[in-house]
Design a protein that fits this description.
By secondary structure, the chain is α/β, with parallel strands linked by helices. It is 45% helix and 21% strand. The strands form three sheets. Strands 3, 4, 5, 6, 9, 10 and 11 form a seven-stranded mixed β-sheet that branches. It has a two-stranded antiparallel sheet with strand order 1-2. The chain has a two-stranded parallel sheet with strand order 7-8.
Length: 304
C-alpha cells in the first residue's frame, strides 16, 4: 500500500472536502482526486459517496479509515518523539465549543498552548452540546467542550473547568427593587435563566429549599438564553436576577456593579462544570495529546 495514498485518504475523510484536504497537504485538488481514484481502483472498492464538493465515507471507506487512521498517527507520533522537540509538533486541532467558551476561555488557552507549540493550528466550531457531540461522531471534531455529554460509552469526558454559580442582580436593578430577604422571596423576582435543561435557578432552589422546587419549575422566566455572556449582559442591564460564573463576574462584583443575593444567609452554591470530550477508541496525534494534557493541567481556572 502506497503510504501517501493512505495519508491522502485519511485527510480527505477528516475534512469531508477535497479542497480543504488539498490545502492541508499542500497539493492540488487534481492530485488528491487522482490518488483517491487510484486507491479505489487498486482495492476495487467504492470508498466515498460524492455529493458535489462534499464527500462522505461508504461503509467500506469507514472500515478502511478505522484501520489507516491509528497506524498513521502512530507513525507521526513516533517521529515527533524521536525529534524530542515540541516546537516541531504540528497538526490541526478541531474544537467544538459553546459561544461563551469560544469568547472567554479557549482564546487564552490557545494563546498559551501555542507558545510551546507554535505549529499547532486550531479550527474552532461553535455549537451546543448536541451539535458538538454529532460533530465528534462524524469525525468533524477532535474535541468538544461540553456541559452535558450524552453518549458516555462512545466518548470519554474529563472535567477541565469548575466554578460556582452566584445569584446576582445589578446595581441599577436595586434602584427600583429591594434585595430579597430569603429564598422564597426570589420567586417574586424577575428571573433570567439558561434555557431548558440548562436552567440554573431550579438546581439552586433544589439545593437550598427543595420544598420550593415545584414553584420554581412553574415560575415563568423573564428571559432565557443559552449563552452565559448574553445572560451576564442582561443582568447588568437591570432586567432581573441571574446565576453567573464567579470567575466571569469577579470584576463586576469587586466594582459593585453586580450584587450577590443572600450573601450571608448560609445559601449553598451550585457549580457549573465543563468537560473536554473525545472518542474513547482512537489514537490521538502527538499535538492533540499535548493539548488534552494542557487543558487538564489548567482546569483550576478559566483564564489563567
Amino acid at each position: 500500500m502506497d503510504f501517501n495514498k493512505a495519508r491522502t485518504f485519511v485527510e480527505v475523510a477528516d475534512c469531508g472536502n477535497i479542497t480543504q484536504a488539498a490545502n492541508r497537504l499542500s497539493r492540488t485538488q487534481q492530485a488528491i482526486s487522482l490518488q483517491l481514484q487510484q486507491l479505489e481502483d487498486e482495492l476495487e472498492l467504492a470508498l466515498f459517496d460524492r455529493h458535489g464538493p462534499k464527500i462522505t465515507l461508504t461503509q467500506d471507506g469507514k472500515h478502511l479509515y478505522t484501520i489507516f487512521k491509528p497506524r498513521l498517527l502512530e507513525i507521526d507520533n513516533a517521529v515527533i518523539v524521536l525529534k524530542s522537540n515540541k516546537q516541531q509538533a504540528a497538526g490541526v486541532i478541531r474544537v467544538g465549543a459553546w459561544m461563551e467558551q469560544a469568547v472567554s476561555y479557549l482564546p487564552e488557552m490557545m494563546r498559551i498552548f501555542k507558545q510551546d507549540h507554535p505549529l499547532a493550528v486550531f479550527e474552532l466550531i461553535i455549537g451546543n452540546d448536541k451539535q458538538i457531540e454529532q460533530g465528534l461522531k462524524d469525525n468533524q471534531l477532535d474535541f468538544g467542550i461540553q456541559v452535558f455529554c450524552q453518549d458516555k460509552k462512545m466518548f470519554k469526558c474529563e472535567c477541565i473547568y469548575r466554578q460556582p454559580l452566584i445569584p446576582v442582580v445589578s446595581r441599577s436593578f436595586l434602584k427600583t427593587q429591594k434585595l430579597p430577604k430569603n429564598i422564597l422571596a426570589t420567586l417574586d423576582m424577575p428571573i433570567l435563566d439558561y434555557r431548558d435543561e440548562y436552567s440554573a435557578f431550579n438546581p439552586w432552589i433544589k439545593k437550598n429549599a427543595r420544598q420550593l422546587l415545584p414553584l420554581a419549575q412553574k415560575k415563568v422566566r423573564t428571559i432565557t438564553t443559552s449563552n452565559n455572556v448574553v445572560l451576564k449582559q442582561l443582568v447588568l442591564q437591570g432586567l432581573g436576577m441571574g446565576l453567573l460564573h464567579l470567575e466571569a463576574i469577579q470584576g463586576e462584583l469587586d466594582m459593585g456593579e453586580l450584587v450577590p443575593i443572600l450573601p450571608r444567609s448560609g445559601v449553598k452554591n451550585i457549580f457549573v462544570e465543563l468537560d473536554v470530550v473525545y472518542k474513547r477508541k482512537q489514537t490521538l496525534p502527538y499535538v492533540h495529546q499535548a493539548f488534552l494534557s494542557f487543558l487538564k493541567e489548567h482546569k483550576g481556572g478559566w483564564m489563567e
